[in-house]
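Predict structure. Chain length: 653.
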Amino acid sequence: MIHDYLPISRADMNIRGWKQCDFVYVTGDAYVDHPSFGHAIISRILEAHGYKVGIIAQPDWRDKESITLLGEPRLGFLVSAGNMDSMVNHYSVSKKRRSQDAYTPGGEMGKRPDYATVVYCNLIRSVYKKSPIIIGGIEASLRRLAHYDYWSNKLKRSILLDSQADLISYGMGERSIVEIAEALESGLDVKDITFIEGTVYKTKDLESVYDYKLLPSYAQLTEDKKEYAKSFYVQHCNTDPFTGKRLVEPYDNGVYVVQNPPAKPLSQMEMDEVYSLPYMRNYHPSYEELGGIPAIREVKFSLISNRGCFGACSFCALTFHQGRIIQARSHESLVEEAKLLTEEPDFKGYIHDVGGPTANFRFPACEKQMTKGACPNRQCLFPKPCANLNADHTDYIELLRKLRSLPKVKKVFIRSGIRFDYLLADKNRKFLRELCEHHVSGQLKVAPEHVADAVLTRMGKPANSVYRQFVKEYKEMNGRLGLKQYLVPYLMSSHPGSTLTEAVELAEYLRDLGYMPEQVQDFYPTPSTISTCMYYTGYDPRTMEPVYVPVNPHEKAMQRALIQYRNPNNYDLVVEALKKAGRTDLIGYDKKCLIRPRSGDGGRGYYPKKEQGAGGVSGVPGRRGTSGGKDSQSRTGKGKKTIRNVHKKVKKG
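Prediction complete.
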């Protein structure tokens, strides 16, 4: 086997002596041969099973010749929009075009189309009428059945239909892609590949489909939002590989989209094998003169130790993509990869992260999950930790100790985020001590998201009292260690359930804390999350209770402004919000007021002087925010890389 980048041209194929690829992988990202990129993992797995895989990265969708670069593959095309949904990659929550694309050479925007998976597939189909097309990645995975599309403000059909693809390999894809390849290699027609877990196919005949749940038809869903909320919850309750049922969604003209149950989780040995494949661990050298690929900076010196999440955040799509069952790599595998990092010429002694969707999850929430699955109608941490939850950080502590004891390693950071409620559920505080003593550099980023319990309930987050307890213990631990380290809380505005009353409550909390966030995230309705379902339908699909949803852009601007009430640019919005919320008592000269009246101050000093610049309250650094409320990338998913670095999520094709 040649240890090099996979072919991206005919010349590369000739060097390997190939006349034809078995598979051609078309991706919306630049070609980065690193295990944080879905196309790298899937292509290397296929290579390990003896298949010839070529890469077409970011083809020009306006030119049919761009898709013929490697010729027609023997077995089929694999298509992914990339590590992010292409629409999330392109647009902020205010639907404004982003200026940079971290997955493109030099960060240049515009090298992939909107709805990239659909566009690429239709381009392929226009040239190769009969070649099998298998789609995967986060975009296809989260759009596999009817879904609300925020950017068009419509309920869209399964991406399988609009793309003209033959199959979806949803979720992480390692198991299903090998089974698909073996089925095609055996001579089976792609239309007959209907039996593989972790796939979605279309059919006009349900006679051979067994043990399934029939969802409402697409026509019914478009007519009644309440029906969509109910249908979505059925999908949500069938994302477990052990208990999930086959789902059938009817469409016009007698077409059915069939979702098979999810693929089984990988064992530790299988996880180790995935990450031991011969990756080049960098972007293709052809990108060097264009400025390289910015996304590699966040992952090059980071270690992926786990996948999956039982945290149950309503706004996160991990349940749909990676599932709730934690899969983790062995210490040996991670230590070996860490040693490889230390040999890189630009390694400075710092491992940037050891984690995954949630860093401190290292094994399933309870012992039964790996054989019986996660409970379909109960959550592991929400609203309170389950009595069967195994909250234990011993394994993670041992792993971190091994990594930081390696030669050439100066510091090991944890940046992918911890669940503070899980930390508190562990009766032993050794991890909190080790975290503060060895793995924080001045500031620890955490995600309470809000302080109003009414909103936190909709978010699937623990009550505010839990966060307050963590703040207290974090401050006390740093005090015992003689360290001055702070918490940087991530907060979200305009989530379903948040009225101006709850937004004011959050502003008052920040006032008492003496902390003003520099950047605020508006809720971003990305496909296939509970929160997005609430946003679209006005119902919480878990209870079918009506939910207040702030959809008016002006109200959303007011909610965001309240979080950054110190910013002079937000003054008028804050005044309007306080008046509408009936809280004009917060306009005045008292230390509890958010802003001062405008008259008599020359139009400048709107904020009580005693509160300005307050710092260090409850372990939060004192700094005034100057941002105008830029919105940041949704935590769906990630790949792991998002604009908010703390929430990196690997999305595999």
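Summary: Residues 331 and 399 are 6 Å apart (CA to CA).
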